[in-house]
Protein backbone atom coordinates (compact mmCIF):
# COMPACT_ATOMS: atom_id res chain seq x y z
CA UNK A 1 0.00 0.00 0.00
CA UNK A 2 1.35 3.45 -0.92
CA UNK A 3 2.20 5.68 2.01
CA UNK A 4 0.81 9.18 2.38
CA UNK A 5 3.13 12.21 2.10
CA UNK A 6 2.65 12.81 5.82
CA UNK A 7 3.80 9.27 6.66
CA UNK A 8 6.87 9.69 4.44
CA UNK A 9 7.67 13.00 6.13
CA UNK A 10 7.36 11.29 9.55
CA UNK A 11 9.96 8.71 8.52
CA UNK A 12 12.24 11.44 7.18
CA UNK A 13 11.94 13.34 10.47
CA UNK A 14 12.80 10.26 12.49
CA UNK A 15 15.73 9.43 10.20
CA UNK A 16 17.09 12.91 10.84
CA UNK A 17 16.89 12.23 14.55
CA UNK A 18 18.84 9.01 14.12
CA UNK A 19 21.77 10.86 12.56
CA UNK A 20 21.66 13.90 14.84
CA UNK A 21 23.83 13.99 17.93
CA UNK A 22 21.63 16.46 19.81
CA UNK A 23 18.07 17.75 19.75
CA UNK A 24 15.77 19.99 21.72
CA UNK A 25 14.47 18.22 24.81
CA UNK A 26 13.65 18.89 28.42
CA UNK A 27 16.74 19.30 30.62
CA UNK A 28 16.20 19.74 34.32
CA UNK A 29 18.61 19.68 37.22
CA UNK A 30 17.53 17.53 40.14
CA UNK A 31 19.46 17.42 43.41
CA UNK A 32 19.67 14.00 45.01
CA UNK A 33 16.90 14.84 47.44
CA UNK A 34 14.59 16.89 45.25
CA UNK A 35 13.91 18.27 41.80
CA UNK A 36 15.19 21.67 40.66
CA UNK A 37 14.17 23.29 37.36
CA UNK A 38 17.33 23.94 35.38
CA UNK A 39 17.01 24.92 31.73
CA UNK A 40 15.40 24.15 28.43
CA UNK A 41 17.83 23.57 25.61
CA UNK A 42 19.49 20.88 23.56
CA UNK A 43 18.86 17.57 25.28
CA UNK A 44 21.16 14.61 24.91
CA UNK A 45 20.29 12.08 22.21
CA UNK A 46 22.15 8.83 21.80
CA UNK A 47 21.27 6.36 19.03
CA UNK A 48 22.71 3.13 17.72
CA UNK A 49 22.06 -0.17 16.02
CA UNK A 50 21.80 -2.62 18.88
CA UNK A 51 22.93 -6.23 18.43
CA UNK A 52 23.17 -7.73 21.91
CA UNK A 53 24.59 -4.86 23.95
CA UNK A 54 25.72 -1.25 23.69
CA UNK A 55 29.02 -1.29 25.60
CA UNK A 56 28.74 2.31 26.85
CA UNK A 57 25.91 4.83 26.51
CA UNK A 58 27.20 8.10 27.94
CA UNK A 59 24.50 10.27 29.48
CA UNK A 60 26.50 13.04 31.18
CA UNK A 61 28.28 15.99 29.61
CA UNK A 62 25.70 16.14 26.80
CA UNK A 63 22.86 18.53 26.04
CA UNK A 64 23.25 20.60 29.19
CA UNK A 65 23.65 17.64 31.54
CA UNK A 66 26.74 18.32 33.71
CA UNK A 67 29.83 16.23 33.08
CA UNK A 68 30.18 15.47 36.80
CA UNK A 69 28.04 15.21 39.91
CA UNK A 70 25.11 13.46 38.17
CA UNK A 71 23.97 10.33 40.02
CA UNK A 72 20.62 9.38 38.40
CA UNK A 73 18.83 10.16 35.14
CA UNK A 74 15.31 9.97 33.74
CA UNK A 75 15.45 8.66 30.16
CA UNK A 76 12.88 8.29 27.42
CA UNK A 77 14.00 5.04 25.77
CA UNK A 78 12.72 4.25 22.26
CA UNK A 79 12.88 1.20 20.01
CA UNK A 80 12.69 1.93 16.28
CA UNK A 81 12.19 -0.56 13.43
CA UNK A 82 13.41 -3.74 15.13
CA UNK A 83 13.99 -6.96 13.19
CA UNK A 84 12.29 -9.11 15.87
CA UNK A 85 10.10 -8.95 18.95
CA UNK A 86 12.46 -8.06 21.78
CA UNK A 87 13.14 -5.86 24.82
CA UNK A 88 15.65 -3.32 26.15
CA UNK A 89 17.11 -3.51 29.65
CA UNK A 90 18.75 -0.33 30.94
CA UNK A 91 21.11 -0.33 33.95
CA UNK A 92 24.17 1.50 35.35
CA UNK A 93 27.35 0.91 33.35
CA UNK A 94 29.27 -1.73 35.24
CA UNK A 95 26.41 -2.13 37.72
CA UNK A 96 23.62 -4.61 38.45
CA UNK A 97 20.72 -5.30 36.09
CA UNK A 98 17.09 -4.73 37.12
CA UNK A 99 14.64 -7.56 37.65
CA UNK A 100 12.88 -6.93 34.32
CA UNK A 101 13.40 -5.12 31.00
CA UNK A 102 11.88 -1.64 30.89
CA UNK A 103 10.71 -1.67 27.25
CA UNK A 104 9.31 -4.47 25.07
CA UNK A 105 7.89 -4.52 21.54
CA UNK A 106 6.81 -6.66 18.62
CA UNK A 107 8.75 -6.68 15.36
CA UNK A 108 9.09 -3.27 13.66
CA UNK A 109 7.13 -1.36 16.33
CA UNK A 110 8.14 2.12 17.44
CA UNK A 111 7.45 2.43 21.16
CA UNK A 112 8.92 4.24 24.18
CA UNK A 113 8.98 4.21 27.96
CA UNK A 114 10.29 6.43 30.75
CA UNK A 115 13.20 4.80 32.63
CA UNK A 116 14.74 5.96 35.91
CA UNK A 117 18.30 4.65 36.25
CA UNK A 118 21.47 5.22 38.28
CA UNK A 119 24.44 6.58 36.31
CA UNK A 120 27.29 4.05 36.24
CA UNK A 121 31.03 4.33 35.86
CA UNK A 122 32.21 6.87 33.31
CA UNK A 123 28.87 8.71 33.49
CA UNK A 124 27.22 5.99 31.42
CA UNK A 125 24.44 3.43 31.37
CA UNK A 126 24.28 0.11 29.54
CA UNK A 127 21.47 -1.09 27.29
CA UNK A 128 21.00 -4.71 26.27
CA UNK A 129 18.72 -5.94 23.51
CA UNK A 130 17.30 -9.43 24.02
CA UNK A 131 17.20 -10.55 20.38
CA UNK A 132 17.45 -9.30 16.81
CA UNK A 133 18.52 -5.73 16.07
CA UNK A 134 16.82 -2.42 16.75
CA UNK A 135 17.61 1.25 16.45
CA UNK A 136 17.78 2.86 19.87
CA UNK A 137 16.83 6.48 20.63
CA UNK A 138 17.43 7.90 24.11
CA UNK A 139 16.30 11.35 25.25
CA UNK A 140 17.47 12.67 28.61
CA UNK A 141 14.36 14.11 30.30
CA UNK A 142 16.03 15.01 33.58
CA UNK A 143 18.78 14.17 36.01
CA UNK A 144 19.64 14.02 39.70
CA UNK A 145 22.83 15.36 41.27
CA UNK A 146 24.49 14.85 44.62
CA UNK A 147 24.26 18.59 45.34
CA UNK A 148 21.99 19.95 48.03
CA UNK A 149 20.19 23.25 48.26
CA UNK A 150 16.89 24.79 47.28
CA UNK A 151 14.83 22.83 44.82
CA UNK A 152 11.50 21.22 43.99
CA UNK A 153 9.72 18.28 45.54
CA UNK A 154 7.36 15.88 43.78
CA UNK A 155 3.80 15.21 44.88
CA UNK A 156 1.93 12.16 43.56
CA UNK A 157 -1.80 11.86 42.98
CA UNK A 158 -4.09 8.98 42.07
CA UNK A 159 -4.44 9.19 38.28
CA UNK A 160 -6.86 11.99 37.34
CA UNK A 161 -7.92 12.83 33.81
CA UNK A 162 -7.12 16.38 32.71
CA UNK A 163 -8.02 16.11 29.03
CA UNK A 164 -9.86 13.64 26.78
CA UNK A 165 -10.78 14.43 23.19
CA UNK A 166 -13.14 11.45 22.83
CA UNK A 167 -16.33 13.00 24.29
CA UNK A 168 -16.18 15.73 21.62
CA UNK A 169 -15.89 13.05 18.87
CA UNK A 170 -13.23 15.32 17.35
CA UNK A 171 -9.64 14.04 17.46
CA UNK A 172 -6.79 16.46 18.00
CA UNK A 173 -5.89 17.58 14.43
CA UNK A 174 -2.63 16.64 12.74
CA UNK A 175 0.04 19.02 14.06
CA UNK A 176 -2.71 20.83 15.95
CA UNK A 177 -1.90 22.22 19.38
CA UNK A 178 -4.13 21.36 22.34
CA UNK A 179 -3.45 23.35 25.49
CA UNK A 180 -4.23 21.61 28.78
CA UNK A 181 -4.56 23.54 32.03
CA UNK A 182 -2.83 21.61 34.83
CA UNK A 183 -2.72 23.86 37.89
CA UNK A 184 -6.05 24.27 39.61
CA UNK A 185 -7.06 20.69 38.80
CA UNK A 186 -6.56 17.42 40.72
CA UNK A 187 -4.98 19.34 43.58
CA UNK A 188 -2.13 20.77 41.49
CA UNK A 189 -1.29 24.12 43.08
CA UNK A 190 -0.26 27.34 41.40
CA UNK A 191 3.50 27.57 41.28
CA UNK A 192 3.95 23.98 40.07
CA UNK A 193 6.89 23.91 37.67
CA UNK A 194 6.35 20.60 35.86
CA UNK A 195 3.86 17.76 35.65
CA UNK A 196 4.30 14.02 35.51
CA UNK A 197 1.58 12.89 33.10
CA UNK A 198 0.39 9.74 31.36
CA UNK A 199 -0.13 10.50 27.66
CA UNK A 200 -2.48 8.13 25.83
CA UNK A 201 -3.14 7.85 22.09
CA UNK A 202 -6.42 6.10 21.32
CA UNK A 203 -6.09 3.72 18.37
CA UNK A 204 -4.58 6.10 15.81
CA UNK A 205 -5.34 5.40 12.16
CA UNK A 206 -1.62 5.22 11.38
CA UNK A 207 1.58 5.09 13.39
CA UNK A 208 1.61 8.34 15.32
CA UNK A 209 3.91 10.53 17.42
CA UNK A 210 2.91 12.99 20.16
CA UNK A 211 4.88 15.96 21.46
CA UNK A 212 4.33 17.61 24.87
CA UNK A 213 5.81 20.88 26.16
CA UNK A 214 5.15 23.96 28.28
CA UNK A 215 2.32 26.00 26.77
CA UNK A 216 3.65 29.00 24.91
CA UNK A 217 7.19 27.63 24.61
CA UNK A 218 8.84 26.41 21.43
CA UNK A 219 7.63 23.03 20.22
CA UNK A 220 10.34 20.39 20.88
CA UNK A 221 11.76 18.07 18.23
CA UNK A 222 11.52 15.02 20.50
CA UNK A 223 8.37 12.95 20.96
CA UNK A 224 6.87 12.15 24.35
CA UNK A 225 4.78 9.25 23.00
CA UNK A 226 5.29 6.80 20.13
CA UNK A 227 1.95 5.22 19.25
CA UNK A 228 1.59 2.14 16.98
CA UNK A 229 -1.33 2.07 14.54
CA UNK A 230 -4.62 0.84 15.97
CA UNK A 231 -3.40 0.41 19.55
CA UNK A 232 -4.29 2.11 22.81
CA UNK A 233 -0.79 3.26 23.85
CA UNK A 234 0.37 5.17 26.94
CA UNK A 235 3.66 6.55 28.20
CA UNK A 236 4.61 8.63 31.23
CA UNK A 237 6.40 11.92 30.57
CA UNK A 238 7.75 14.81 32.62
CA UNK A 239 6.43 17.99 31.02
CA UNK A 240 7.35 21.55 32.11
CA UNK A 241 4.50 23.94 32.79
CA UNK A 242 4.06 27.52 31.63
CA UNK A 243 3.87 30.40 34.09
CA UNK A 244 0.10 29.95 33.99
CA UNK A 245 0.41 26.25 34.79
CA UNK A 246 -0.45 24.79 31.37
CA UNK A 247 1.09 22.36 28.90
CA UNK A 248 0.53 21.72 25.19
CA UNK A 249 0.26 18.46 23.23
CA UNK A 250 0.34 17.83 19.49
CA UNK A 251 0.05 14.62 17.43
CA UNK A 252 1.75 14.26 14.06
CA UNK A 253 -1.46 12.76 12.67
CA UNK A 254 -5.02 13.39 13.82
CA UNK A 255 -5.92 11.13 16.72
CA UNK A 256 -7.77 11.10 20.02
CA UNK A 257 -5.53 11.92 22.99
CA UNK A 258 -5.92 11.64 26.76
CA UNK A 259 -3.82 13.37 29.43
CA UNK A 260 -3.83 11.94 32.96
CA UNK A 261 -1.97 13.61 35.83
CA UNK A 262 0.25 11.40 38.03
CA UNK A 263 2.05 14.11 39.97
CA UNK A 264 3.73 17.50 39.89
CA UNK A 265 6.88 19.33 40.96
CA UNK A 266 6.81 22.42 43.12
CA UNK A 267 9.44 24.52 44.96
CA UNK A 268 10.22 22.97 48.34
CA UNK A 269 10.78 24.45 51.75
CA UNK A 270 14.33 24.08 53.01
CA UNK A 271 14.85 21.43 54.15
CA UNK A 272 12.02 19.48 52.46
CA UNK A 273 9.97 17.10 54.57
CA UNK A 274 8.07 15.26 51.82
CA UNK A 275 8.48 14.64 48.11
CA UNK A 276 12.14 13.62 48.19
CA UNK A 277 13.22 11.05 45.61
CA UNK A 278 15.41 7.99 46.04
CA UNK A 279 16.00 5.37 43.35
CA UNK A 280 16.26 1.66 44.09
CA UNK A 281 19.27 0.11 42.32
CA UNK A 282 18.78 -2.36 40.86
CA UNK A 283 15.02 -2.09 40.48
CA UNK A 284 13.54 -5.02 42.39
CA UNK A 285 10.56 -7.30 41.77
CA UNK A 286 7.55 -6.46 43.93
CA UNK A 287 5.19 -9.09 42.60
CA UNK A 288 4.66 -11.57 39.77
CA UNK A 289 1.16 -12.91 39.45
CA UNK A 290 -1.45 -14.48 37.22
CA UNK A 291 -4.54 -12.31 37.45
CA UNK A 292 -7.89 -13.69 36.34
CA UNK A 293 -10.30 -11.69 34.19
CA UNK A 294 -12.04 -9.08 36.31
CA UNK A 295 -9.87 -9.78 39.36
CA UNK A 296 -8.14 -7.27 41.61
CA UNK A 297 -4.99 -7.98 43.65
CA UNK A 298 -3.72 -5.84 46.54
CA UNK A 299 0.06 -5.65 47.01
CA UNK A 300 1.61 -4.24 50.20
CA UNK A 301 4.92 -2.37 50.05
CA UNK A 302 7.46 -1.94 52.82
CA UNK A 303 8.34 1.72 52.40
CA UNK A 304 11.16 3.75 53.92
CA UNK A 305 10.29 6.35 56.53
CA UNK A 306 9.12 9.64 55.01
CA UNK A 307 8.18 8.15 51.64
CA UNK A 308 4.55 7.92 50.54
CA UNK A 309 4.78 7.25 46.78
CA UNK A 310 6.48 4.69 44.54
CA UNK A 311 8.12 4.81 41.11
CA UNK A 312 7.21 1.50 39.45
CA UNK A 313 7.41 -0.33 36.13
CA UNK A 314 4.34 -2.42 35.26
CA UNK A 315 4.66 -5.27 32.74
CA UNK A 316 1.80 -7.41 31.43
CA UNK A 317 1.29 -10.18 28.88
CA UNK A 318 -1.88 -11.90 27.76
CA UNK A 319 -4.93 -11.46 25.58
CA UNK A 320 -4.61 -8.42 23.33
CA UNK A 321 -7.11 -5.73 24.20
CA UNK A 322 -6.99 -6.39 27.94
CA UNK A 323 -6.44 -3.43 30.26
CA UNK A 324 -4.48 -3.19 33.50
CA UNK A 325 -5.03 -0.50 36.12
CA UNK A 326 -2.81 0.24 39.12
CA UNK A 327 -3.87 2.65 41.87
CA UNK A 328 -3.56 3.35 45.63
CA UNK A 329 -5.49 0.69 47.58
CA UNK A 330 -8.68 2.02 49.11
CA UNK A 331 -9.05 4.84 46.61
CA UNK A 332 -11.08 5.07 43.39
CA UNK A 333 -10.06 3.23 40.25
CA UNK A 334 -8.37 5.71 37.87
CA UNK A 335 -10.46 6.77 34.85
CA UNK A 336 -7.78 5.69 32.34
CA UNK A 337 -6.10 2.28 32.36
CA UNK A 338 -2.40 2.15 33.23
CA UNK A 339 -1.64 0.06 30.16
CA UNK A 340 -3.36 -1.78 27.31
CA UNK A 341 -2.14 -5.20 26.19
CA UNK A 342 -1.11 -6.03 22.65
CA UNK A 343 1.08 -8.82 21.36
CA UNK A 344 3.78 -10.02 23.75
CA UNK A 345 4.85 -8.11 26.84
CA UNK A 346 3.80 -4.48 27.26
CA UNK A 347 5.60 -2.27 29.81
CA UNK A 348 5.07 1.20 31.22
CA UNK A 349 6.30 3.29 34.16
CA UNK A 350 4.44 5.51 36.55
CA UNK A 351 4.50 7.42 39.81
CA UNK A 352 1.75 6.39 42.23
CA UNK A 353 0.84 7.25 45.80
CA UNK A 354 0.52 4.37 48.26
CA UNK A 355 -2.93 3.61 49.61
CA UNK A 356 -4.37 1.85 52.64
CA UNK A 357 -1.68 -0.05 54.56
CA UNK A 358 0.94 1.21 52.08
CA UNK A 359 -0.65 -0.92 49.37
CA UNK A 360 -1.43 -0.78 45.65
CA UNK A 361 -4.39 -2.35 43.85
CA UNK A 362 -3.92 -4.07 40.48
CA UNK A 363 -6.94 -4.88 38.29
CA UNK A 364 -7.35 -6.94 35.10
CA UNK A 365 -10.16 -5.47 33.04
CA UNK A 366 -9.77 -8.08 30.28
CA UNK A 367 -11.66 -11.28 29.48
CA UNK A 368 -8.83 -13.74 30.15
CA UNK A 369 -6.13 -14.41 32.73
CA UNK A 370 -2.98 -12.32 32.19
CA UNK A 371 0.54 -12.28 33.60
CA UNK A 372 1.65 -9.17 35.50
CA UNK A 373 5.01 -8.03 36.87
CA UNK A 374 5.50 -4.97 39.08
CA UNK A 375 9.05 -3.73 39.73
CA UNK A 376 10.04 -1.03 42.22
CA UNK A 377 12.29 1.67 40.72
CA UNK A 378 12.27 4.20 43.56
CA UNK A 379 10.48 6.12 46.27
CA UNK A 380 9.20 9.67 46.61
Percent of sequence in beta strands: over 45%
CATH architecture tag of the largest domain: Sandwich
On the 0 to 100 scale, the average pLDDT is 84
- Helix/strand structural class: mainly beta
Tell me the series of helices and strands, N- to C-terminal: HEEEEEEEEEEEEEEEEEEEEEEEEE
In DSSP terms (H or I, runs of 4 or more residues), the helix count works out at 1
Q: How many discrete domains?
A: 3
Chain oligomer state = single chain
Q: Please state the overall shape, judged from the principal axes of the Cα atoms.
A: globular
Helicity level: under 10%
**Global Rg:** 19 Å
* Poorly predicted residue ranges: 1-5, 7-53
Number of strands: 25
Q: Between the first and last Cα atoms, what is the distance in angstroms? A: 48 Å
CATH class of the largest domain: Mainly Beta
CATH topology (level 3) name of the largest domain: Jelly Rolls
Largest pleated sheet: 5 strands, mixed
